[in-house]
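Researcher: Go.
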Amino acid sequence: MQTANIAEVKDHLSRFLALVEQGEEVAICKRNVPVARIIPMPAKKSNCTVLGCDLGSVQIKGDITTPAMADADWCMHVDGKP
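Model: Structure:
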């Protein structure tokens, strides 16, 4: 792990970021006492989903276009009366 004081990091930030891009960690010190770390971001994972991979895994029973409840059950309660 590379270490550097704050003034050095301010003067050469691009150099330290290049180290981080290569996988190195950089410890930032204040008067030679570590106060922070710059670490590389984890590699971005690509989406491995294949469209249609669950094809046929769902079975629909009955007619999905008819309401699940009768029209009478949808009535609004007015003044506390059904």
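Model: Residues 2-38 form a domain with the YefM-like fold fold (CATH 3.40.1620.10).
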